[in-house]
Amino acid sequence: VGSFQIVFLVIVLLVGWGVWSASIAGPVTVMVLMFSTTLLPAHYSESFCRLPCWTVLHKYFNYRRYNVADPKVFPKPDKRYMLIEFPHGVFPVATILIATYFDEHYDHYKSMGRSIRGITASVLFYIPWVRHFMAWLGALPATKKNF
């Protein structure tokens, strides 16, 4: 687990303390800690994607991949592809599933110099903590630059 995940866990513990505090310092501490996380850099974390807790999600959602293209033709290393998946919703479960599933089962993409990343709503990268969570999974904001 990387240093950013440790910082995240420390902040969660401090926020927990702040929520249970009865004084005005508790809510103020929570707000300061939440918004201070936006200053930390958010990067992809392979170790975070390989945590065993993600296999529970794969089993719960019965997540699997179906090939719709000839495996001898797909993928071509010089092309970029977009894989569409569901479910869609307020919380991007599909992003979590694709990030953790493909990193574990499709290492050969890395040997081709390619990566598989989820695209999620850009607004999620403005929300404290959610930004880091999505970045650790390798998700990118849905902007023109990332297509």
Structural description of this entry:
There is one protein chain. The mean pLDDT is 71. Helix 1 (3-20) packs antiparallel against helix 2 and helix 4 packs across helix 5 (93-105). The protein has helices at residues 3-20, 25-36, 46-49, 53-60, 93-105, 108-111, 130-136, and strands at 119-120, 140-141. It is mainly α. It contains 7 helices and 2 strands, in the order H-H-H-H-H-H-E-H-E. It folds into 2 domains: 1-40, no CATH class; 44-146, no CATH class. A two-stranded parallel sheet has the order 1-2. InterPro entries: DAGAT. It comes from Amorphochlora amoebiformis. GO terms for molecular function: diacylglycerol O-acyltransferase activity.
SSE order and pairing:
Elements: H1 3-20, H2 25-36, H3 46-49, H4 53-60, H5 93-105, H6 108-111, E1 119-120, H7 130-136, E2 140-141
Parallel strand pairs: 1-2
Helix pairs in contact: 1-2, 4-5
Membrane topology: Multi-pass membrane protein
GO molecular function: diacylglycerol O-acyltransferase activity
Family: Belongs to the diacylglycerol acyltransferase family.
Describe what is shown at a glance.
The chain crosses the membrane at residues 7-35, 81-102, 123-142. With 147 residues, this protein is mainly α. Helix content is 45%, strand content 3%.
Strand order of the largest sheet: 1-2
Rg (CA only): 18 Å
Strands, count: 2
Fraction in beta strands: under 5%
Helix content: 40-55%
SS class: mainly alpha
Mean pLDDT value: 71
What best-fitting shape do the alpha-carbon axes yield?
elongated
Number of domains: 2
Terminal-residue CA separation: 29 Å
SSE string: HHHHHHEHE
Main sheet summary: 2 strands, parallel
What is the subunit arrangement here? single chain
Number of helices: 7
**Unreliably modeled segments:** none
